[in-house]
Amino acid sequence: MIYLDNNATTRVAPEVIEAMRPYLTEHFGNPSSAHSLGREMSAAVERAREQVAELLGAADSGEIAFTSCGSESDNWAIRGVLEENPNKKHIVTTEVEHEAVRNLCTRLEQQGYEVTWLGVDSQGELDLDALRAALREDTALVSVMLANNETGVLFPIEQISRIVRERCNAVFHVDGVQAVGKIPISLRDIEVDLFALSGHKLHAPQGIGALYIRSGVKLAPFIIGGGQESGRRAGTSAVPNIVALGTACELARTSDRHETIRSLRDRLEDEILTKIPNARLNGTPDREKRLPNTSNISFAYVEGENILVHLNEAGVCVSAGSACHSTTHESSPTLRAMNVPYTAAQGSIRFSLGRFNTESQIEYTLKVLPGIINRLVEMSPYDQELRALYAAHN
Ligand code: PLP
Questions:
Q1: Best mutation site among 182, 198, 294, 322 for ligand 1, i.e. most ligand atoms within 8 A of its Cβ?
Q2: Do residues 93 and 143 make contact, with C-beta atoms less than 8 angstroms apart?
Q3: Residue 325 has what pLDDT?
Q4: How far does residue 117's CA lie from ligand 1's centre (Å)?
Q5: Which of 27, 106, 199, 355 lies 20 to 30 angstroms, CA to CA, from 253?
Q6: Distance between CA atoms of residues 261 and 356, nearest Å
Q7: Residue 14 has what pLDDT?
Q8: What's the pTM?
Q9: Cβ 204 under 6 angstroms from ligand 1
Q10: To test the ligand 1 pocket, which listed residue (5, 98, 182, 195) has its Cβ within 8 A of the most ligand atoms?
């Protein structure tokens, strides 16, 4: 199978498996134990913490706390800030966040919090004036993603952090889950207070995440119990997974594959957009403002689900919109927020590349895709609209 669905999850890298294997076999022990086996495990956890801190450009490895996934990191950040600031009932976030933030904020709204939902323009970019206008004295938290999981559009978190600092003293949380390992990040240079990441998006296994908590930021614990993670997140540390995340961060930091992924994505995107008449890009065409591995493309007047099934039969895995929406027929909230017409949003496909993709895989995808789209175009009930599009293209 050709796997072009790396924003959904990634294959665990062989180097990561090798690094975690001893912690599933000969090395065991509870890192909280005082004996030598425990101390060895604890040393492995601290090494991994440094590897994560290094990839994030954090000033201190003590700013990293391990969690079970990106969703936990986001939930902890948001709920932890609200618990610390019981008198502030206002939250600012965006309409295009991942469910881990969006659904939590909707729930908080139902529980009495006021949420300002910032919209995006047709290219998926945030209106910073709307952000300025939304910030208030009683804003407890601003929660914004760095990279959108569906379109790859990047939000300017450096600018956002400055605006937040100028206007109020809200805590600034960034959902960095899709960005980590794909673009350089230096948290010591940006006034971000909290930052979520997830191991399975960067070739570590599922079941491990982390939250960066800037030194001095007050955050109530999410899981209460033992004193693990400096009393911030209880539960016996998942040492093999933590070692895996550390190794995956090291791999991402030292990888020489980043430029190859970018050029394969560019090739795929350019060729689809020039050769297929009903294809249009979702998200800004300015590639500096998008993740280098992601292309979200709508094939107007055909069903994304059908494209997915045909590509799957041809041996290529992609997503129709976000993986999380694959069981519903509603178009994705992100594409809706961007005002993508329904007939285009329904035909949206996300191609997301990773370190294991090769040129021949991209060539193969480009070979099979036009035929699939053609077959679906012939079956589409929108024949007049399609004829007009094809005539304009030729
Ligand atoms: N945030 C973003 C932007 C994501 O893309 C995802 C997963 O797709 C998450 C959070 C949730 O991460 P996890 O699957 O590790 O819970």
A1: 198
A2: yes
A3: 44
A4: 19
A5: 27
A6: 9
A7: 98
A8: 0.96
A9: no
A10: 98
Q: Is 69 in the pocket of ligand 1 (CB under 6 A)?
A: yes
Rounded-to-integer distance, Cα 97 and Cα 41, Å: 36
Q: Which two tokens stand for residue 278?
A: 């009903």
Residue 291's nearest CA partner among 126, 184, 147 is 147
Question: Would residue 249 show up in a list of annotated catalytic residues for this protein?
Answer: no
Contacts of residue 20, defined as CB under 8 A and 6 or more positions apart, other chains included, come to: 205, 240, 241, 243, 244, 247
Q: Is 178 in the pocket of ligand 1 (CB under 6 A)?
A: yes
Give every residue of the chain whose pLDDT is below 50, as ranges: 322-326
